[in-house]
Design brief:
alpha/beta; Rossmann fold; Dihydrodipicolinate Reductase, domain 2; 2 domains; 8-stranded mixed beta sheet; 6-stranded parallel beta sheet; 9 helices; 14 strands; 33% helix
């Protein structure tokens, strides 16, 4: 059996990565794509192409919808899809607030459908290894956590710089290290938050630096920026040792071998496509398999931290 998927949106990430990843997932089938520019939908060669999102949602042959729209469009189309009885995989951030995230999960639960945030890096075997090691207690309590995701330059007019579209570095790329943090420490509660954001006069954060400190003194440092040299780092100092990702692609490693340093030991991971793994896992859950899934509470926890930082 396969899950028949429809995609809302045919932008860069769909054209370059996720549509093909969906096709490559054995339990998924690309049935339809909807885009305002129907030529972009047709370019992906689905069975059916639509020029409006509602028509795809109303297509009774579609089992599940992958939402790849601008951030401000996530919540309304999540609810529209759920109302139509569709399972939903929605790009990160799931919504623009913790309250809206909870409401979306409540709606999915009431409708009996799956709703998953497409924080795709969390399906990568290396990231799974990191979060399993730490969340299991094997490494002891976290002392210091560092997660950075930075690059220099967003084109003028890009949605990432539009406050009305849910732009900003924190929502766009800060989500990655925050999901890694909550994956490692699902009950992380910040007793004190130190934050420094730069908006450059655009109404969105170009850079956000944050320190999230627990009551026991554990500290998580998060950096997200559109105006710093390209870097993706993840390091964890815990009671039982250190974990390091040293290849500077901590969150967007894609189709290449990777490694992980645990104290003085290096673990190697073969090439994989975490987008494909995500579609396969979510499709499997829809089909009743016990596949690993990004926890709903993790999405709510991340959204709660984002609320505190915005």
């Amino acid at each position: 059996m396969t899950v028949r998927w429809g995609i809302l949106g045919a932008g860069w990430i769909v054209q370059t990565a996720t549509a093909q990843a969906l096709r490559d997932a054995p339990s998924a089938y690309l049935s339809a794509v909807a885009a305002r520019d129907i030529s972009r939908a047709r370019k992906l060669e689905p069975d059916r192409a639509y020029s409006d999102y509602a028509s795809l949602i109303d297509d009774e042959s579609i089992d599940a919808v992958y939402i790849a729209l601008a951030n401000d469009q996530h919540a309304p189309w999540i609810h529209r899809a759920i109302e139509a009885g569709k399972h939903v995989l929605c790009e990160k951030p799931l919504t623009l607030s913790a309250a809206d995230t909870r409401a979306a999960f409540d709606a999915a639960r009431a409708a009996g459908v799956e709703l998953v945030e497409a924080a795709w890096s969390m399906w990568h075997p290396r990231m799974r290894r990191v979060t399993d090691l730490v969340s299991s207690g094997e490494m002891g309590a976290i002392r210091n956590f560092l997660g950075t995701f930075t690059f220099d330059g967003v084109p003028e007019g890009n949605y990432r710089l539009d406050p009305q579209m849910g732009g900003g570095a924190l929502l766009d790329i800060g989500i990655y290290p925050l999901h890694a943090l909550i994956g490692c420490a699902p009950t992380w509660t910040s007793h004190d938050i130190e934050q420094d954001s730069i908006d450059g006069g655009l109404g969105v954060d170009i850079t956000t630096r944050a320190r999230l400190i627990t009551e026991t003194g554990s500290c998580a440092s998060i950096v997200a920026s559109f105006s710093m040299p390209e870097s993706q780092r993840l390091s964890i100092d815990a009671e039982g040792g250190e974990i390091r990702i040293t290849d500077d692609q901590a969150f967007t490693t894609w189709q290449q071998p990777t490694s992980l340093q645990i104290n003085d030991h290096v673990e190697n991971f073969p090439e994989t496509n975490a987008y494909r793994d995500m579609f396969e896992a979510v499709s499997g859950r829809i089909l009743g398999r016990d596949n690993w899934q990004l926890d709903q509470e993790a999405s709510i926890q991340v959204a709660t931290i984002v609320d505190a930082l915005r």
